[in-house]
Specification:
By secondary structure, the chain is α/β, with parallel strands linked by helices. Helices cover about 35% and strands about 15% of the residues.
Length: about 575
Amino acid sequence: MRGPNWLGDAVMCEPALRGLRGLFPDAQVTLLVKPAVADLFVGHPAVTRVLTYDIKGRHAGLPGKWALAKQLRRQGFDLAVLFQNAFEAAFLTFLARVPRRYGYATDGRSLLLSDPVAVPDPRLLVHQVRYYWDLLKPLGLTGDPPVPELVVLPEEEQAMVRRFVQGGLTATDIVVGINPGSTYGDAKRWLPERFAEVTERLCRTIHKSPGQHISVVIFGAKGEERLGQEIAVRLSSRSLVLSGATTIRELMAAVKRCSLLLTNDTGPMHIAAAFQVPVVAIFGPTDWRTTSPFGGAHAIVRQPVDCAPCLLRECPIDHRCMTRVTVDQVYEAATKQVAVLPGLSHEANFSGSNEIDHESKMSKPNHRNILDGVTVFLDRDGTLNYDPGYLKIAADLKLLAGVGPALARLKKVGAKLVVVTNQSGVGRGILTLKDLEAIHARLQGLLEQEDVALDAIYFCPHHPDDGCRCRKPNVGMVERAVSELQLDFRRFYLIGDHVRDIQLAHRVGAKSILLTSAPVDAQSLDRLKVEKAMPDAMAKSMAEAVDWILNDAVKAASQPVGAAEK
């Protein structure tokens, strides 16, 4: 069999491979494909052997093709089935003297085929899965094609589980996959910031079991690493960027682990469908009628513009087929997919960007939820964990004594916990975004062991000289949290160990607690006043800070309605 050259096409050809195996159950079946596709069928029951057609290496040029033809001739094949339509495929098997050469009569190759098959009428718009399947009907194949199926080995799945754990994910996480790129061309790519926004909204509306968390895994080919990082930095959920960092086999194992995949029209889209992972696919210049994920459990989002499908790699005008696909459209499609997943549900308001947050609406018996609607902003280094200067290695992060139990008390009475941290080490080149991602994954993991789930982590990666809006004491991170988490800005507290934390609290109207282990003398107080950084309270530990917040909340709750505003 000469298989297709593209990853997605190869997956769509898989039902036909099984169909051929059914026609010849005792045959030795060899699949000839290019290197990018070869690993897709390792261990597949329909294939006895995979041969690699290395067009850029040993099979380059006419000498290479002649060498491949001689290699095929030595195998003594009885039948060649050409799922690839190129003239070259027929020519190679003709040179290899395979007696029966079977394929569609395209590309002027009819004379090279012993059994040319009439090409389906292109006006009928046959799905590609059926196109490959129907090629075999003259050989005796009957019925309709099944959905594609792929195989990953148990050891490959276990290796990916370990890799997820190293990236901060756990075995019980709900994993949302994103595939924002496309090796075919930029025209197939939806906007990365919209992928991020949909994912943020979706992660906030998935109803999790107690102790369960949502993580995001971002996929992509080599050269798409920056695209993956661009999306990851916009996410508050913990994320793992695998763009450009997986083999085909690793990609398969990782995609199989997902509960949902948000994607452009790509090869990983078809891999997900083959593993029965629900897909939300965004289509623009390509034809959804012929290359959509095969099967009924998937959603297609597209805009019916006049120029689509054009099948162009680059848009020559304004890319309207993609830019007109809205966040709301993709989000609604995704929530419908989530609604049918076993053990998962969602609750959402589609009229705008206001989602209902299950965590804050759940009743918590045996607790007075005096902090419902309250957000506590937390500095990171020196507040939650020991501050070594520039923390560069995730394993070096260690929580300060008592932090976990103290924050657990806040969560039990309804508070949201949001970390806001300056991380100029990224801008200075001391650590990478990937390093920071691992550090934050460890922070979340350590807190989860104490029954503390952070609602979000926001960080400023900029150099102090960049003049950004997000570096504390500037308010950019808090503004983003208010917008994305739908926070009540009238009910903020902030805990930090630095003057800039208290200054930020003043700017956003939060009550502030300064953590300081050293005694505060008169000179220190004067300096705080001069710097406009006098806190509402000072505490020697996180436990003391939490005590102050709880006492303050009780006092506020006991005041008559409107007294606090007066």
